[in-house]
Protein: UPF0260 protein E5Q11_03145
Organism: Marinobacter confluentis
Amino acid sequence: MIAEIPFWQRKRLDEMTAAEWESLCDGCGKCCLAKLEDEDTGEVFYTDLVCRYMDQDTCGCTVYPERLEKVPACTVLTPDTLADFHWLPYTCAYRRLAEGRPLADWHPLRSGDPETVHQAGVSVRHRVQSEAEVPEDDWEEHIIHWII
């Protein structure tokens, strides 16, 4: 019997079901980092500050179903808006697939284990603090350079 080709290899992003699309998220938490944009150049800088609703152990959102009510500027990726998020890290599954690259070996869909993203050192687990703990005027002091 020939194994079925995984959906992410046989479907375009815009052909995926909502459940398939959601499962592409590797759980790294990088899109939940507070970012600063240089108004002159448009360059985006990541900080080590995360949304107040992130569970820093799992790197998951604690209010995911109502996140847009609580954080109106929350990142919402769709096949139509993906290109708007030029700042997505190189490791992001959505970006990888959009660029024609395969999912990384540590991606939970490939490994079968949601912990592999953390074991590979790709997630923000234990490397961040809540934005609620730092006044916004001090965010520039939290710019990081370990995101790829």
